[in-house]
């Protein structure tokens, strides 16, 4: 392990950050362990852990998993800790305006009661590429691409769902005419789809059908049996043929999941 002197840091901040990091590592995923191990020295490990924690807070606030005021306070603390450690490790000459702008995130969340980010805009490049690759009129290429993008955006706005509801084609559940089913639903601004692995607390299951009865949204789920706890955040499950009904409001997305050749499913939770 690289000694503290190689970081140019012998202050109590380094000791505190290292102690905090060891605690935080107990709650990191196997993906993070893989990434951290490849960094090769303490400086990169500390930076990666702190910025990962910062990202987790942003996602937790955005998805409603953390109260806004608590999230804003934790975000401000995490930002200050990261910036102070960054300065200890690298000196002030590498600080840029965007580092200072990170300090605006906490007040913005507290003021607007939500996270306002640019992820939607960042994802738009995929739409641009999907439109542009079909344009053959290169003599007026830019106008053709922009016109097509406007049409795509107008269609998306018309189909926009601002409330919690079923998405796509719906039908009545056989034998239960009061229940409407579909392959997808949206709740709390995220989407749940058939065949997706979802979490409910420490439980995991595969969505079989999305449904609504009255105003209540729920999913028919095949719960999975826990086989082993690989890390604090990574768990191995086995599919079952049992059926359960889970309220959509109780569901959470996992970070990622992967089915192994032996049929076991590795689920990465937050």
Please describe what this structure looks like.
Helix content is 41%, strand content 26%. It has 270 residues and is of the alpha+beta class. The chain has 3 domains: 4-112; 119-158, no CATH class; 165-268, SH3 type barrels, CATH 2.30.30.
The major β-sheet equals: 7 strands, antiparallel
Mean pLDDT: 82
Percent of residues in helices comes to 40-55%
Query: What is the CA-based Rg, rounded?
Result: 23 Å
Oligomeric state:
single chain
Query: What class, by secondary structure content?
Result: alpha+beta
How far apart the termini lie comes to 28 Å
Low-confidence stretches: 1-31, 33-40
Write the layout of secondary structure elements.
Layout: H1 12-25, H2 30-37, H3 42-62, H4 68-90, H5 97-101, H6 105-112, H7 119-132, H8 141-158, E1 165-167, E2 171-173, E3 176-182, E4 184-187, E5 190-193, E6 197-200, E7 203-213, E8 216-223, E9 225-229, E10 234-238, E11 244-247, E12 252-253, E13 256-259, E14 264-268
Antiparallel strand pairs: 1-4, 2-3, 3-7, 4-5, 6-7, 6-12, 7-8, 8-11, 9-10, 10-14, 13-14
Label this structure with key terms:
270 residues; alpha+beta; SH3 type barrels; 3 domains; seven-stranded antiparallel beta sheet; four-stranded antiparallel beta sheet; 41% helix; globular
